[in-house]
Specification:
Blueprint lengths: L2 E5 L2 E3 L5 E8 L7 E7 L6 E7 L5 E3 L7 E6 L4 E6 L8 E8 L18 E2 L3 E5 L2
Parallel strand pairs: 2-11
Antiparallel strand pairs: 1-3, 3-8, 4-5, 4-9, 5-6, 7-8, 9-10, 9-11
Length: about 130
């Protein structure tokens, strides 16, 4: 059984940075995509970015482009979300999720939320002065 564990959340001032980690353990697949999502208080969960294990392609939602960076370490089965220039509206619980697919995000959009098979428990990010 695959398990995902997020870490790295916390409280940060506006303009600050945080680095989130999504570590996978258990049975893994050769090709998969990892998505990052967030859920603000009182709002629906929304996608942030996704990364393909096939070709390493990444796609970002417009709200985080230029501020967030996704990277991966395949040897460690870990995906990272580096967040900079954080804003109060970035506050929320951040989740990573995984789907078995070889899609390239150079061509395709990120998978939709319901398409992901495995989810982490989430990590809280609070941006406040």
């Amino acid at each position: 059984q695959l398990q995902l564990v997020e870490s790295g959340g916390g409280l940060v001032q506006p303009g600050g940075s945080l680095n989130l980690t999504c570590a996978a353990s258990g049975v893994t697949r050769d090709y998969y995509a990892v998505g990052w999502f967030r859920q603000a208080p009182g709002k629906e969960r929304e996608g942030v970015a996704c990364i393909s294990s096939n070709d390493g392609s990444i796609r970002y939602e417009d709200s985080v482009k230029g501020r967030f960076t996704v990277s991966r370490d395949r040897n460690k089965n870990t995906v990272y979300l580096q967040m900079t220039s954080l804003k109060p509206e970035d506050t929320g619980v951040y989740y990573c999720a995984r789907i078995a697919t070889d899609l390239s995000f150079l061509i395709y959009p990120c998978p939709r939320e319901f398409e992901y098979d495995y989810w982490g428990q989430g990590t809280q990010v609070t941006v406040s002065s």
